[in-house]
Amino acid sequence: MQPLIDNARTFGRRPEEFARLADGQSPQVLFITCSDSRVVPALITGARPGELFELRTAGNIVPAHATDRPCGETATIEYAVQVLGVRDIVVCGHSHCGAVGALVRGDDLDAVPAVRDWLAHAADAPSAADPVDPTVAEAVQRHVLTQLLRLRSYPCVEQRLAEGQLRLHGWYYEVHTGRVHEHRAATDSFETL
Ligand SMILES: [Zn+2]
């Protein structure tokens, strides 16, 4: 923790870079990814402060849209689309994902019931052709597509897509190489970005 504190102490010594941020934010992209510490969206994309609106959840799960209870994830997505007017949404899964791995293996998560119940949001548990593949690449990629489908069911997303004001992207990030793969609709496969 101490190195992080040390960096935070010196971080604000560049006031000229941050002053304009007081005027507000107008990010063009909502970036939805896993909470995993190995995935650093600003590092991957080179985004500067104000450029990426982020939603991070265990397993980059997009919960089903519901209005009968408060949901932080739904609120974040709605705000990004309706208020900020983002033009692109990226759902980025990653290799070696603990959440997707637990789903694929059917791990017993009774010791962490909040995690168990959250992952139950993940609709169909992704299967893997090779369940011992440590990257769980295939399962993560399928999982990303499931979350994109969920996203399409959000009324605000559906509307902006119909208006041609929004694009959705499925990414797969390799934590061990730094490479990003993007889902291509034409071939229905993930290919190097
Ligand atoms: Zn993960």
Reconstruct the topology from this structure.
Elements (H helix, E strand, L loop, with lengths): L1 H10 L3 H4 L10 E6 L6 H5 L6 E6 L14 H12 L4 E7 L3 H8 L7 H7 L17 H16 L2 H8 L4 E7 L6 E5 L4 E4 L1
Parallel strand pairs: 1-2, 1-3, 3-4
Antiparallel strand pairs: 4-5, 5-6
Tell me what you see in this structure.
This protein is an alpha/beta fold. The protein is 36% helix and 18% strand. The protein has helices spanning 2-11, 15-18, 41-45, 72-83, 98-105, 113-119, 137-152, 155-162, and strands at 29-34, 52-57, 88-94, 167-173, 180-184, 189-192. Strands 2-1-3-4-5-6 form a six-stranded mixed beta sheet. Strand 1 (29-34), helix 3 (41-45) and strand 2 (52-57) form a beta-alpha-beta unit. It is globular, with a radius of gyration of 18 Å. The relative contact order is 0.15. The model has no long low-confidence stretch (mean pLDDT 93). The site of zinc ion has 7 residues, from helix 5.
